[in-house]
Design a protein that fits this description.
Elements lengths: L1 H31 L4 H25 L5 H21 L3 H28 L6 H30 L1 H22 L11 H8 L2 H21 L2 H9 L3 H28 L1 H22 L3 H16 L2 H11 L4 H28 L7 H31 L1
Helix pairs in contact: 1-2, 1-4, 1-5, 1-6, 2-4, 2-14, 3-4, 3-6, 4-5, 4-14, 5-6, 5-10, 5-13, 8-13, 8-14, 8-15, 10-11, 10-12, 11-12, 11-13, 11-15, 13-14, 14-15
């Protein structure tokens, strides 16, 4: 079981590297394909859009396949997409290659979470999902900095080649460790989609979107925020990115174990912590030590939400868990765009960099309100049923 979960984590690691590494290579990529920085930034937006659109479509396409075959096939698609990125002759071909790569993202995490949960007893599902997500957090500590360094040292194209190798390793690990499994009857698409509009499922998906929005409000602009509030040097910013990655890993590991005991209680605790840190961040981040502690706790709070919300969506959408799980990854990427837009709006309104983290705090409170509403609804429903 441990080797199977580690194989799923290896796939998450590879996907995490390809999603975030281009952010540190934008100038080199822009020069390589003769495009402006803003235009090259669309590569990141196109990837997120591909995840949102591709997650439900690819999941439905693979719904009747054996889980091992589906996951290995997704890593093959991932590898091909990164190789196409490495050899793309121009901007538009690179843009298309990034979209191809993104199609594997949502379905892999969605189906992978289902497989991870199936490997353990019911009471251990949240921690199993957190082990898979651990690959994504570790990618932010070591994988993304390594890919960025490689891209600057020998060219951004070789960085994509190296990421392709990660995809091959993950695919082989999945093939060797996961059981062959059985094929599944093709579900009725209408019935699957109807599950997604159930109030409890919509509440869970909206919680994911606002929680991710809170994360990316600050994460998108963290370098600029540190430069303006903490007066950070480039070296300090780099160190803080690693610190955030460590926080991601700690929060993910702790929340997985806590969520096995109380899923909603874990969400309430971490979302409350995220909101508090976001609101006080401008006050404590004026010094290097203050910023370090704040970002470590902030990273733990943001990724402390990931495994519980993914598990919650699968529970609420028990009639279509694979589709809902994949759509939830799309909701996370919707939050990515929402958070970046909210932070940008704060700057455009002249509120300054001190307002960015508190804006993320507002989104954390919205996510917390959704969780509390679902708890009250569940309690009311239980009382009604009892009567």
């Amino acid at each position: 079981m441990k080797s199977q979960l580690l194989a799923l984590s290896a796939g998450a690691f590879a996907i995490g590297v390809t999603e975030f590494a281009p952010m540190g290579l934008l100038p080199s990529i822009a020069q390589g394909v003769d495009a402006s920085i803003p235009a090259t930034g669309m590569l990141i937006s196109a990837y997120a859009l591909g995840v949102m659109i591709g997650a439900p479509l690819i999941t439905l396409l693979l719904s009747s396949a054996r889980r091992r075959s589906a996951l290995v096939g997704l890593m093959v698609l991932f590898t091909v997409g990164n190789l196409l990125s490495a050899i793309a002759p121009g901007y538009y071909t690179l843009l298309a290659a990034r979209v191809v790569t993104s199609l594997s993202h949502g379905a892999f995490f969605g189906l992978g979470a289902i497989v991870a949960a199936s490997l353990v007893p019911k009471e251990k599902r949240a921690s199993a999902v957190s082990i898979m997500f651990m690959g994504l957090t570790v990618a932010n500590i070591g994988g993304v900095p390594a890919a960025t360094w490689l891209g600057h040292a020998i060219g951004w194209r070789m960085a994509f080649v190296a990421i392709s190798v990660l995809g091959l390793i993950a695919g082989l690990s999945l093939f060797l460790t996961l059981p062959r499994g059985e094929s599944h009857p093709r579900p009725h698409v209408g019935n699957e989609l109807r599950v997604l509009v159930k109030p409890a499922v919509l509440n869970a998906l909206m919680t994911t979107a606002f929680a991710a929005g809170s994360m990316f409000t600050l994460y998108t602009y963290v370098a600029a925020v540190l430069q303006n509030i903490t007066h950070a040097t480039p070296a300090f910013v780099t160190a803080m990115l690693v610190t955030i990655g460590i926080g991601f890993t700690l929060g993910n590991a702790i929340s997985g174990k806590l969520a096995d005991r109380s899923l909603k209680g874990t969400l309430i605790g971490f979302l409350s912590l995220l909101a508090v840190i976001s609101f006080i961040f401008p006050l404590v981040a004026t010094t290097g030590p203050g910023a370090t502690i704040a970002l470590l706790l902030w990273g733990a709070a943001t990724f402390g939400v990931s495994a519980p919300v993914q598990t919650r969506v699968m529970q609420e959408a028990h009639d279509a868990p694979a589709l809902a799980s994949s759509v939830n990854i799309g909701a996370f990427n919707l939050g990515n765009a929402l958070g970046a837009a909210a932070g940008g709006a704060a700057l455009s309104l002249g509120l300054g960099y001190t307002a960015i983290a508190p804006v993320g705090g507002v989104m954390a409170l919205l996510a917390l309100a959704l969780v509390l509403m679902s708890k009250r609804s569940a309690s009311s429903e239980a009382v009604q049923l009892a009567s």
